[in-house]
Structure formats: structure tokens, C-alpha cells
Amino acid sequence: MSALAVGLPDGRTLTVPVGSTVSEVAQEIGAGLARAALAGRIDGELIDLRTPLLEDVAQLEIVTGKDPQAAEIIRHSAEHVMADAVKRLFPEAQVDAGRADHSEKFQYDFKVDRPFSPEDLERIEAEMRKIVKEKCAFTREEVSREQAQRVFEELGEELKLSRLDDIPADQPITLFRHGSFVDLCRGPHVQTTKQVGAFKLLEAAGAYWRGDESNPMLQRIYGIAFASKAELAEHLERIEEAKKRDHRRIGAQLDLFHIDPLSPGTPVYHPKGMILYNGLVEYMRSLYPKYGYQEVMTPQLYRADIYKTSGHYYEFHDDMFWFEGDEGEELGVKAMNCPGHCRLLLHTKRSYRDLPIRFAEFSRLHRNERSGTLTGLSRVRSMAQDDAHIFCEPEQVPHEIERFFEMTREVYQDLGLSGVKVSVSTRPESFLGDSAEWDVGEQALVEAVRGAGYECGIKEGEAAFYAPKVEFDFDDVLGRTWTLATIQIDMAAPGRFDLRYIGRDGQEHQPAMLHRAILGSLERFLAIYTEHTGGDYPLWLAPVQVALLPITDRHVEYAQKIRDALEGAGLRPFLDDRSEKLGWKIRDAELQKIPAMAVVGDQEIEQGTVTPRFRRDADRGGEAVAVDAFVSDLTEQVARRQA
């Protein structure tokens, strides 16, 4: 075939010679489009402009700077420019691999004699600007393995030769060049370095070669790039705001928690942190009667047999802590609640009249996360989950999922979380159970999501090995997406544990099993929620709900009486009786993000009042009110879970 058909987004079809590149198709459409082109897209996959088309294409899109994925291509190209700059400034540097995912940033790892300093990054950035001005064209070459090997042997790039061995024999090997720089790469890349746009190197950090702690330490440089300086400036502002909101920083500022280096990955909660933690637990517990959950506690240690039955021993082994008991038995520290809940269900013979059974648990869980991945509360080794497992008749599953949606909506409303998107994650390549049953389960979840009034996204292959999953994705104030609530239909555990109940026909049947979490890991949720709110927690959840601020020492006694009244109503006041000026006390209360404060002076003592102000509502307060009314108002706000 000497010609092929290429479909365009507007419905037209172009006939072009076989082997025409994406760039040539863009030129055929229009010269302006060709100049602006950054890449192509076929069936949702980005391809390089220099890629030859060898067969008919149902639809080809030309990606320009206006496309949502444009920044990914720009970052990938900026990544190569950065590596080129490093090689120009540090000729002896060995270049390893770049980043596979450019949706957020770019990076390269280098083998160098010493770590990169901030001054080095400034020099590299300046060199990148020179390269961009050179307007070097990116070129794509498909080569044999032997040709690629000769290229990198001549350059002395030993790390690249190792990476070359990773490419399967049946896959093409492509090189991308600009100027004198060359690298193994699949692309796509922009046309010339001029299109790299605005960029910024963020930091340098150590990284083990191939992520293995037994290998040498390389130096990794991270950067960001956008099509315009305005987009870059906006992004850098978000980064600065993210630093201010970092939960580790706020945790220290508000005296909530810390991580002891002698217990990596295990948070140490301070008194205020425990108020916050317990506040979430108690809140979830308060909903259990309404939604029919029973709280249980299962063992922290199990013999390995239970995890072999569940499949975790084979699929999750390296992520768990194991040790040998005194009789040589292998014991596992609990990393998840589901196997224990299955054993608990087996303890008593069940009837259909008992179902649904909803077990909830807040026990500590421990997972053997790699030390390099541990981050404050967001990635830990010790955690708890607002975890529950529902055992029901198969025909009860839709109703249970519907109730899960209702509970999730209520929780997120009370916590002030909005803008949730819902998706279904489908089976991964490695899974337990029957593929036909997975298909049925996935479709049931899709229908349930749509029935609840949500648009349903699909996350191909992202489910756990044992269950398709509904995921609630929440966008925080910085535009970051987090997965919070999940519900899964277990395709494996009921059969592997031989779970049974006596049905309406008097025969044994296998129950359906749902895994359900709304907050997920409490530690991770606290990290996300702290950064979303900036530590400005709603009144009902705040560790300190009201600050009492006597103007002078002679006002302290009256302030103590107000404190006693607040504590008597179950509230959490802080009496600031330090010998400081009122302005200093107000400022400190604001820094501590205390939702309410009440000034106490001569006028308040004479009238038996307080003068409140509210952090989240500047229009409320500022006028003196009776103490009883103040206490009653706060109590009512807490009861209503008002901010």
C-alpha cells in the first residue's frame, strides 16, 4: 500500500504516503498548525512529530501548546535540555535515566563526583537558557541495538549501556538528539529547543541507582517547565503555598505530632494531635449506629496461614513485617483488617437473618514501607484506617453501595470537602478470582456510581489484586488530586475463606464481601486535610476551640470562670494568662489557628460578658455578649459541626 488514510478530529480524512510523519501531516493540514505542533495523539497516546505513520489511522490529533498535555511534552524536552547543560558544565558526569511521567515535573539522575549545590543549579539553569536560544532541532533515529551500543560506548556512558539492556528484543530502539546531546528515548519531543518555554530547576537530591539501596548513590535534579512564563510563575506560587501548608510544618507549628528518628514512619502524636485524631475517630463512630456498623477489634499478630489463605502472603509479603515465634512458627504483624474480619465471621454460624453484617475497626496497622518513601503522616509504617467490611447476600450489594454513598456524602459535607470525582478501578494484570466475575463486579460498581448521580470515570488496571474498586477523588485547594473514600467488591476472600451463611432455602450460600473506607488511612487523611485547610480546622474538630485573652493580669480571674463554664459544656478553651500585650496574644491565637477567641477586660467584667471574634467569619463577633450566650452559641455550633 503506497498511501494511507488519516482521520482528523473535524471528520475529514487525509490521504498521505505511507511513512509520512506526524509533522508532515500537520503541514498538510496547515502551515500555522505545523509551526505550533508539539506532538501527535492517536487513540489517546502521545506520539512524536517525527514518528512515521505506517498504517491507516482512525483519528490523528495534532497537539499544540493549547492542549492539556502540552506541558508534558515541554517538560520531557526540558529534561533533555537539562541533561545537555549538565554534560556541558560537568563533562565527566554519567547520565542515567529521566522521568517516565512528566505530568508534574521532569528529572534526570547523574553519576557525579559530588552532590550538586544550589549554585550548581543556577549555573545549569543559565546553561539551559543558552541551549534554548540555540534553537536546536530535536531529531529521532531508530537504530539497531549494536548501533546504540556503539554510540554510548564512544560517549563513555556506562549507565546508558546498562539501560540499553533493559529494552526487550522485540521493541524498537530510538535515539533523540539535539545539538551534540543524544539519549535513549521514546519521545515525544518538541520541534526545537525554542519551544521548551519557561522552566525552573527546583532541587537536587540523592537517589540510589535503579532505586536499590545496595547500589551507588546518584544525584537527581528536579525541574518544572511550562509553555509560558505566566504559567510557570503561577505554578511556583502554588509550590510556595504548598510549602506553607505542608502538614509537617503545620504539625510542628500547632504542636500536633512529630516523627522520632528512632521509630521511622511511626508518628508520635502530641496531646493536641490526639484531640484531632480522636475527634475524627469519635466522629466516624458517631455515625455507626445510623449506618448499622458494629465496631470490633481483631489481633495484631496472626500466623502466616491466614495471609496464605487471603493471598496477601504471596501478593503483599514484602510490604509486611514478619518474625519467627518461639516454636518456629512464622507470624505476621497485621497490615490490613480484612483477613481478621473473615475469621471473625467464621467464628459463628450465620443466617440470612443476620445479614448484612458490617464490621468496623480502628486497630493499628503496620506496613513495611521503604525508608526512602516515608513522608510525615502521608506515608507511614504505622497507621489506622476507618476500615469496615460488609458481609451480605449478593442481592443486597446495590443497597449497601448506595448506603456507602450516603455516608460518604454526609462525612464530606461535615468536613467541608467538595468537588469529588468518582471512578471505578478495574482488574490489574495479576488478580485473584474469575475474570467473568470481575466483569460482573466492575459493571455493578459502574452502575452504582451512575445510580448515585455521579459521572463514572474508569481507571484501567488500577484495582487491588482481589477486588474492583470505587474511588472518590478529591481536589484540594492547591489543585492536587487525592483518593479518599473507596468501596470494593471482594472477588477472592469469600471463596478462599470458605465463608458461608444459611440462606432462605435452608442451604449454605457464599456471602458477598465489601471493603469500605471513607477517610482511608487516618494518618494520610490528616496530612491531606491539614494541607487542604492549612491547619484552619472547623470549630468542632479543632484541638483548641476558643482562646480566652485577658487584657491584663487583673482580668485573669474572670477569664478563669469563663474557661470553667466552657469546659463544663464540653468545649476546649485555652486561657492565655501570660503577661503579654493583648495584640501579641491575638496574633499568637491567629498563628495557632484557634477558631474563636474572646477578649476579657474591665467592660466585660462589669457587664458579665465576653467579646468574641471568629476566625472563619469576620462579620460575626466584635460585640460583647453574655457568657451563657457565648457558651451556648459555641456548643450549638459544635453540635451542628459548623465551621
Topology, element by element:
Layout: E1 3-7, E2 13-17, H1 22-29, H2 31-36, E3 39-42, E4 45-47, E5 60-63, H3 70-89, E6 94-98, E7 106-111, H4 118-133, E8 139-143, H5 145-155, H6 158-164, E9 173-178, E10 181-184, E11 198-208, E12 217-226, H7 229-245, H8 247-253, E13 257-259, E14 267-269, H9 271-291, E15 294-295, E16 301-303, H10 304-310, H11 312-315, E17 322-324, E18 330-333, H12 338-346, E19 357-361, E20 364-366, E21 382-392, H13 397-415, E22 420-425, H14 435-451, E23 456-459, E24 469-475, E25 481-489, H15 493-496, E26 501-502, E27 508-509, E28 512-521, H16 522-533, E29 546-550, H17 556-568, E30 573-575, H18 582-591, E31 596-600, H19 602-607, E32 609-614, E33 617-621, E34 625-626, H20 627-639
Parallel strand pairs: 15-19, 22-23, 29-30, 29-31
Antiparallel strand pairs: 1-2, 3-4, 3-5, 6-7, 7-12, 8-9, 9-10, 11-12, 13-14, 16-18, 17-18, 19-21, 20-21, 21-28, 22-24, 24-25, 25-28, 26-27, 31-32, 32-33, 32-34
Helix pairs in contact: 3-4, 5-6, 8-16
Kindly describe this structure.
There is one protein chain. With 643 residues, this protein is of the alpha+beta class. The chain has 4 domains: 3-63, Beta-grasp domain (Ubiquitin-like (UB roll)); 70-243, Threonyl-tRNA Synthetase, Chain A, domain 2; 258-533, BirA Bifunctional Protein, domain 2 (2-Layer Sandwich); 546-639, Rossmann fold. Helix content is 35%, strand content 27%. The strands form 9 sheets. Strands 15, 19, 20, 21, 22, 23, 24, 25 and 28 form a 9-stranded mixed β-sheet that branches. Strands 29, 30, 31, 32, 33 and 34 form a 6-stranded mixed β-sheet that branches. Strands 6-7-12-11 form a 4-stranded antiparallel β-sheet. β6 and β7 (106-111) form a beta hairpin. α5 runs antiparallel to α6 (158-164) and α8 packs across α16 (522-533). The model has no long low-confidence stretch (mean pLDDT 93).
